[in-house]
């Protein structure tokens, strides 16, 4: 006779200092991987619990959701050949050394980026990996393995570049693959790893790098493949004025017109950056439900411009946040990007138009919508128990009166506890199962050996 399966344990995260959820002043109850109850202030859970965690020192928010990154770039942060350059010269400079990337270095870069994100309160880590020099054909496999080992929820996009310099693109020939190779591997990783069900720990998307690095055929075929496998589509679009000019010269149309022509103008798509859209393009993107990942830190570093977050959201586009690559942000800290998103928006709009709650919403529910997920991004019964807990014990928070506002305005940068799918993955500011000292030493050694970093 088969034994009955064990009943999931019930954990009461009790009486938080503050929580980003209505009617949950007394905390929340987690059962298995999900939130099952919000507890009102002064009340107790409706059913017995097996364990209680006193959150009296903690500000509790939904786990942050990162919707755009390039993990491999952690190996070329603050590189002297690329600093103080705008996007195209920056890309051309770094593309001369990125072919040196090895599987071992890529594995460590992915592990380090996942860990950094997790420590910043991120529970779902998206990456856009488009670099496939010889020997790195199994890049997606490596990222999935590392995510599973760390216990973070992952959204890995199979990126691609098929137009090299000789074809009118930007990257050297050593970094591109032909369309058929890309499509075959896209089908392979979707079949192996993509889980479209609620609660999925790993999902795969298709992400041709940008209009100036891939063929129209690849864009068309990727859209068809995404329909067959029910997955998302992702690409860079509208990041710089140079990109708009390139599209006009190469295709005789602006980037959004190009997007429509190749069959990407749908709610299945989310775009990285999305800065240089005119009013009509904002309206069309919103009507189609195309999401936009705002990357404030990277946009400021490269002087790319300001994303029209409020107009896009008002038009109907989901707006999320991403840290972008660690060679154009120089860290993988999503809670820091929340603060930058607020500050940059204040330069674009009136102070009363964008609040700390808007910036937090972009990094949680907005990002989840970009990924097509309604099981994460909010603290409410039925959603996955993905949570970030911050203390306000540092000098930077002294004198703060609104704990949720303080996270953003006073510059929180490291979570004290992080829960993913009901399991603690960070405790007392330390990631479970990762020796950060050893990781940093090994990652730094390879960065110096391969790329000559300082």
UniProtKB/TrEMBL annotation:
Source species of the chain: Methylorubrum suomiense
Keyword terms, alphabetized: Hydrolase
Lineage summary: Bacteria, Pseudomonadati, Pseudomonadota, Alphaproteobacteria, Hyphomicrobiales
Record Gene3D superfamilies: Metal-dependent hydrolases, Urease, subunit C, domain 1
Keyword Chaperone carried by entry: no
Similarity field: Belongs to the metallo-dependent hydrolases superfamily. ATZ/TRZ family.
Domain of life: Bacteria
InterPro entries, alphabetized: Amidohydro-rel, Metal-dep_hydrolase_composite, Metal_Hydrolase, MTA/SAH_deaminase
Protein name (Swiss-Prot/TrEMBL): 8-oxoguanine deaminase
Ranges of residues in domain Amidohydrolase-related: 59-422
């Amino acid at each position: 006779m088969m034994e009955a399966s064990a009943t999931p344990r019930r954990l009461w995260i009790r009486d938080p200092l503050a929580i980003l959820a209505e009617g949950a002043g007394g905390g929340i109850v987690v059962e298995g991987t999900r939130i099952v109850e919000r507890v009102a202030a002064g009340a107790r859970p409706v059913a017995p619990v097996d364990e209680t965690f006193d959150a009296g020192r903690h500000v509790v928010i939904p786990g942050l959701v990162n919707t755009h990154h390039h993990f491999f770039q952690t190996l070329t942060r603050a590189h002297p050949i690329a600093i103080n350059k705008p996007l195209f010269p920056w890309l051309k400079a770094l593309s001369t050394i990125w072919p040196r990337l090895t599987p071992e270095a890529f594995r460590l870069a992915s592990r380090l980026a996942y860990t950094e994100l997790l420590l910043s309160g991120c529970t779902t880590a998206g990456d856009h990996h488009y670099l496939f020099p010889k020997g790195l054909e199994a890049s997606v496999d490596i990222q999935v393995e590392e995510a599973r080992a760390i216990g973070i929820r992952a959204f890995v996009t199979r990126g691609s570049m098929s137009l090299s310099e000789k074809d009118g693109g930007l990257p050297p020939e050593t970094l591109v693959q032909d369309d058929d190779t890309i499509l075959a591997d896209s089908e392979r990783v979707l079949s192996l790893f993509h889980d479209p069900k609620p609660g999925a720990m790993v999902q795969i998307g298709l992400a041709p790098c940008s209009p100036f690095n891939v063929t129209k055929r690849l864009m068309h075929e990727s859209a068809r493949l995404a329909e067959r496998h029910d997955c998302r589509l992702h690409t860079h679009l509208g990041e710089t004025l140079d990109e708009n000019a390139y599209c006009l010269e190469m295709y005789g149309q602006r980037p959004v017109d190009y997007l429509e022509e190749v069959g990407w103008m749908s709610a299945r798509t989310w775009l990285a950056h999305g800065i240089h859209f005119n009013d009509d393009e904002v309206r069309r993107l919103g009507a189609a439900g195309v999401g936009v990942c705002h990357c404030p830190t990277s946009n400021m570093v490269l002087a790319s411009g300001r994303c029209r977050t409020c107009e896009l959201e008002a038009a109907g586009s989901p707006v999320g946040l991403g840290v972008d690559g660690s060679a154009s942000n120089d860290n993988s800290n999503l809670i820091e990007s929340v603060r930058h998103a607020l500050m940059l928006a204040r330069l674009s709009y009136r102070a009363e138009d964008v609040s700390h709650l808007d910036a937090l919403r972009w990094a949680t529910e907005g990002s989840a919508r970009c990924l097509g997920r309604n099981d994460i991004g909010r603290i409410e019964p039925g959603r996955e128990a993905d949570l970030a807990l911050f203390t306000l014990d540092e000098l930077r928070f002294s004198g703060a009166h609104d704990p949720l506002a303080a996270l953003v305005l006073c510059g929180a940068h490291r979570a004290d506890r992080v829960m993913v799918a009901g399991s603690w993955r960070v405790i007392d500011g330390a990631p479970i199962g990762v020796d950060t000292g050893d990781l940093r030493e090994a990652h730094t050694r390879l960065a110096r050996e391969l790329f000559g970093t300082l």
